[in-house]
Design a protein that fits this description.
By secondary structure, the chain is of the alpha+beta class. The protein contains 13 helices and 20 strands.
């Protein structure tokens, strides 16, 4: 029997009481700060919608901070602040560092820890037990919603043990996430290093101007205005800048143009082997077209189509992602002007080495293999991180619902121990490999 099972059997064998947060404490807010009282230079960090739980981008003076902290409500160290608008329910433990919080966006429950621990409350808040009002343009968590929300309130000894278990899960999940993220970053850097090394050529390889070996064009403004009609359903996709990421097409958010006058858009129709290039906003992203009769250009994305059998599109795509291309052409071009875009005539003047066609094919084959490995990592490692987070959320929910006691709790405790053991084994294996 686990320690938590023993505590439940001894202190609350018949379940626990659910209490309203309003019966536990009072919802508090800081005094409202006006926009005219903030600045973007520095001082005391000021948190509002969009920055809560992250980095502050607004500040108030130290004098105003001290004045408002003295006169009005202010959180105590260890109390939990809750985002009441925007990303509703995001929580932050106030650590005592000087900071100020927007009253209409962030609230906290002030209470006596004699019967409910702040650390236990934080985990209860993650379950978001409150209802959300959406009467205005931005959904909000009003004070009344918080005060009416109910949470389980077991004896303090049980709360402490649940917090200990969940803290262990949180720590292990964070450590594993950090390891997997570091692994992914290392593999990406390794890939980029070998890609850039493979695409370095000596002076025996001729440099050609892009406009001499490829067509470079874009969707004209009048074409978009007169002939393009966006819709959320269809078969024909207009590729926008957000659809081009990390050398590939990203079709998670697309606009369809089936109802457009496609007969007037033949110049912007994309074919297999065409490369697209983002020239506004996020500049320099590229991808290759892999299907016929599927894609057209949207604004801010250029078409680059090879016009010679001496240039393989796949080779061109890899070279456009290389460090040397970015250092010598994209970055230099952007740094030499205040442009937020690259005109077509500038793109046509890009230089690229043109090795023999057999060399291009060999390089593409090698880089395709590297890319496949990195793609597997890009899918596998984030999926592992997400799985660990879901595992944590599952056991957190089991511990905090109190729908049952006994076996489920015991399994949770044992799962924590097993996860700890696996983490230790992984670290030992990696250390052994390193040595």
């Amino acid at each position: 029997m686990s320690k938590l099972e023993e505590l439940i059997a001894e202190l609350c064998p018949n379940g626990v009481e659910f209490r309203k947060l309003g019966d536990i404490g009072q919802v508090k807010m800081c005094k409202r700060i006006l926009k005219s009282q903030t600045n973007t230079i520095g001082g005391i960090p000021f948190y509002k919608i969009g920055t809560f739980g992250g980095e502050a981008n607004s500040f108030i003076s130290k004098g105003l901070y001290e004045e408002y902290k003295e006169k009005y409500s202010y959180p105590k160290i260890g109390e939990i602040l809750i985002s009441a608008a925007g990303t509703i329910g995001r929580t932050v433990v106030y650590d005592g560092e000087p900071a100020y919080y927007q009253d209409s966006n962030i609230v906290w429950l002030s209470h006596n820890e004699s019967d409910v621990l702040n650390t236990f409350l934080r985990y209860c808040y993650e379950l978001k037990p409150w209802s959300i009002s959406s009467g205005g343009t931005i959904p909000r968590l009003y004070n009344d919603n918080i005060l009416k929300a109910k949470i389980p309130v077991p004896p303090l000894e049980v709360q402490r043990e649940i917090v200990r278990i969940l803290d262990s899960f949180t720590l292990l999940t964070a450590e594993l996430t950090a390891e997997l993220t570091a692994e992914l970053t290392a593999r990406k850097k390794q890939y980029e290093y070998y890609r850039d090394d493979l695409l370095k050529f000596d002076h025996s390889i001729p440099m050609v101007t892009l406009g001499d070996v490829a067509t470079v064009t874009k969707l004209a403004g009048f074409e978009f205005t007169n002939y393009v009609n966006y819709s959320d359903e269809g078969q024909i996709i207009a590729l926008r800048g957000l659809n081009v990421k990390n050398g590939k097409l990203d079709l998670t958010d697309v606009k369809y143009i089936d109802n457009s006058d496609l007969s007037k858009l033949s110049r912007s129709k994309l074919h297999i082997g065409d490369m697209i290039f983002t020239y506004v906003g996020t500049i320099g992203q590229v991808a290759l077209i892999d299907k016929e009769d599927k894609y057209y250009l949207a604004p801010n994305v250029a078409l680059i189509r090879s016009t010679t059998d001496k240039l393989i599109p796949e080779y061109m795509r890899y070279y456009f992602q290389s460090g040397q291309f970015w250092h010598t052409q994209i970055n230099r071009l952007l740094q030499s002007s205040s442009m937020k875009n690259i005109p077509m005539e500038k793109i046509r003047k890009f230089k690229l080495p043109l090795p023999p066609i057999e060399t291009q094919k060999r390089l593409v084959k090698i880089l395709d293999n590297f890319d496949a490995i990195c793609s597997d990592l890009n899918i596998g490692l984030p999926a592992e991180i997400e799985a660990r987070q879901k595992q944590y959320e599952f056991y957190r929910d089991v511990l905090l619902t109190f729908a049952e006691t006994g076996n489920i709790i015991a399994q949770t405790d044992r799962q924590t121990d097993r996860q700890t053991d696996r983490q230790t084994d992984r670290q030992t294996d990696r250390q052994t490999e390193h040595n």
